Amino acid sequence: xxxxxxxxxxxxxxxxxxxxxxxxxxxxxxxxxxxxxxxxxxxxxxxxxxxxxxxxxxxxxxxxxxxxxxxxxxxxxxxxxxxxxxxxxxxxxxxxxxxxxxxxxxxxxxxxxxxxxxxxxxxxxxxxxxxxxxxxxxxxxxxxxxxxxxxxxxxxxxxxxxxxxxxxxxxxxxxxxxxxxxxxxxxxxxxxxxxxxxxxxxxxxxxxxxxxxxxxxxxxxxxxxxxxxxxxxxxxxxxxxxxxxxxxxxxxxxxxxxxxxxxxxxxxxxxxxxxxxxxxxxxxxxxxxxxxxxxxxxxxxxxxxxxxxxxxxxxxxxxxxxxxxxxxxxxxxxxxxxxxxxxxxxxxxxxxxxxxxxxxxxxxxxxxxxxxxxxxxxxxxxxxxxxxxxxx
Length: 392
Ligand code: FEO
Known about the structure:
Layout: E1 4-7, E2 10-12, E3 15-17, E4 22-23, E5 27-28, E6 33-35, E7 38-41, E8 46-49, H1 57-63, E9 72-74, H2 80-83, H3 86-92, E10 97-100, H4 102-112, E11 119-121, E12 127-129, E13 134-139, E14 149-153, E15 158-162, H5 179-194, H6 198-208, E16 215-218, H7 227-239, E17 243-250, H8 256-270, E18 274-279, H9 285-294, E19 295-302, E20 304-305, E21 308-309, H10 311-323, E22 329-336, H11 342-348, E23 356-357, E24 361-364, H12 369-389
Parallel strand pairs: 8-9, 9-10, 10-11, 15-16, 17-18, 17-19, 19-22, 22-23, 22-24
Antiparallel strand pairs: 1-2, 2-7, 3-6, 4-5, 7-8, 12-13, 13-14, 14-15, 20-21
This protein binds MU-OXO-diiron.
């Protein structure tokens, strides 16, 4: 593919990874992804902003075939999907310097064995002149690792935030063309990658209020020529109130927990609560993460396996704990044969969730009248609590 112009002397030179289906050996990528790199040609100097994944270095190097000199490689983030091809770029351009945060330098030396002499480190707010174009570096830790920064191209009012505001979406559209599709992909990306850092991202968003931004050019997915689309979405995900939603990840081995889940979902729906039900035997874990962005309550459904929760349920609880969603309430429903410590074990797996734990409902064997009554009671409690808090 040819380099694609964004503004005068500013080009997208990315790689589209249509076939990638897993990121970090963890995150499902149903729609592939892209690794967006950018060339900014000033009147005196040329900068490459971010690079591409190691696996697609050839794509980036093809763009650079007719580029005789690169002065700076801006590394907003050290993760290899953006930095992996930097060593090859540095090998082609022996005078090029890598511009990054001090932490970014440490990590790039450690991860890619780049010699220390190849770096220029920049502080928050520092600028780098390319002649008639100026790059400003905004330190923004934890989007997605501790070393991350954003780059702002002042004259063109382009924000290049690397992972922040990205979406795992392979597309030939340079800019957002289908807002519904990109909203879904960006929300999935936020849920899986950014949600654990929502508090600090809220502060980064406040800082960005001070910048005039015409284009947001992230390093995954299409660019935003209407920045308010993604900025407003992030504001709602990061600091909006949770919604009148129960997320219900569960698994059932012999039908008892399944029967409880079916009954409970009906009980909640009948009380006006939206339920997002995920059978963990088959679910896309990214969909579960997305549902956690908005939900006020999570109810975990599990049978008892060797005294504890089913391992798939334990995995989902571990994931929810790591993602730190805005949940306010948690409960557990399920079944056992002769004894269970599933509730105690699950509670111990979610220390990061600052939630009220509502009385669990465990059935000995197949649920009976008193179990259904207890599920009705739990559904009423949840509906009332959502109402009291104004979760709509
Ligand atoms: Fe796209 Fe954190 O790497």
